[in-house]
Amino acid sequence: MKEVFFLKINLPQTYFSKLLRAVVEFDMIADGDKILIGISGGKDSIFLAYALAILRERLHKSFTLGALTINPMFPDKPLDTERIRAFLDGLAIPYDVVDVDIAGAIEAQQDKSPCFTCAFFRRGAMNRYANEHGYNKIAYAHHNDDAVETFLMSLFWSGQLTTFTPVTYLDRTKLTVIRPLVYFRESETREAVKYHGFVPVPSPCPHDGHTTRQDAKELIARLEGEVPDLYDHLAAAMRKGAVGELWPTALTRKEMRETYFRYMGNRLS
């Protein structure tokens, strides 16, 4: 028998305030928006769908919602999309599933990070679906921990100070990505099951728990034992206003040539 949720949606004021702060501060939703929610079935994306359903009721805005799951087709761990569908039916959010052979792509591109390959194909499939079905925005369930971990990962693994932004306009696809959960800690999205009642669908990814992001997550947790305010400091450092004195951009040999001659004159090797 099909399991169907008919939900009386509600959130505690502290949660609603964080949600509203993100939407208002970064001006995420406009009248007439058609928003596609990326749904994996995990705790974060399920909470995002629930939260946006609440905003649809409470905001003085007229917008519509839809949801899409990209099924990565990992053969050993099929994704329980029917349970997701029943939950979203209870929220009156239209739902679709698109199969994308991400498992095969990862196998074929073993020289690349499986997370990079997965994210690349997921984003491409989401963007195509959004354009084909008339959506102008895509909502992802990235929370504050995701942003802080990305910030740390970019510094440690690429030597850059960067992270994803709450609102991102994609020039090539003319879509806008919004992240309404950016002020939620991961612990809060985990606790949110008390309000929406949906037990998250286990991740089908065979690499789950063995990723660079997991390494960053564990590193932050370990260092917080020695630096209690570490997380808050990292979160504050993501803001543009936090940038202090940094070295200038490295010059090329060509750019240094004139200065070099002033220092060395004719004493060239």
Which helices and strands occur, and which strands form pairs?
Blueprint: H1 13-25, E1 34-38, H2 43-58, E2 64-71, H3 81-90, E3 95-99, H4 102-108, H5 114-132, E4 137-139, H6 144-158, E5 167-170, E6 175-178, H7 186-191, H8 193-196, H9 212-224, H10 230-237, H11 253-264
Parallel strand pairs: 1-2, 1-4, 2-3, 4-6
Antiparallel strand pairs: 5-6
Helix pairs in contact: 4-5, 6-9
State the gist of this model.
By secondary structure, the chain is α/β, with parallel strands linked by helices. Helices cover 46% and strands 11% of the residues.
Describe this structure in words.
Helix 4 (102-108) packs across helix 5 (114-132) and helix 6 (144-158) crosses helix 9. It contains eleven helices and six strands. The protein is α/β, with parallel strands linked by helices and 269 residues long. A six-stranded mixed beta sheet has the order 3-2-1-4-6-5, sandwiched between helices. The N and C termini lie far apart (84 Å). The protein has a single domain, classed as HUPs (Rossmann fold), CATH 3.40.50. The protein is globular, with a radius of gyration of 22 Å. It has helices at residues 13-25, 43-58, 81-90, 102-108, 114-132, 144-158, 186-191, 193-196, 212-224, 230-237, 253-264, and strands at residues 34-38, 64-71, 95-99, 137-139, 167-170, 175-178.
CATH superfamily: HUPs
What percent of the residues sit in helical stretches (DSSP H or I)? 40-55%
What is the chains' assembly state? Answer: single chain
Overall tally of domains? 1
Helix run count: 11
Q: Which architecture would the CATH scheme give at its second level?
A: 3-Layer(aba) Sandwich
CATH hierarchy, class: Alpha Beta
Number of strands: 6
CA distance, first residue to last residue? 84 Å
Q: The CATH topology, please?
A: Rossmann fold
Uncertain segments are: 1-6
- Describe the global form: globular
Give the strand order of the largest sheet, numbering strands 1, 2, ... along the chain. 3-2-1-4-6-5
Global structural class: alpha/beta
Radius of gyration: 22 Å
Describe the largest sheet: 6 strands, mixed
Write the H/E string, N to C: HEHEHEHHEHEEHHHHH
Mean pLDDT: 89
What is the strand content?
5-15%
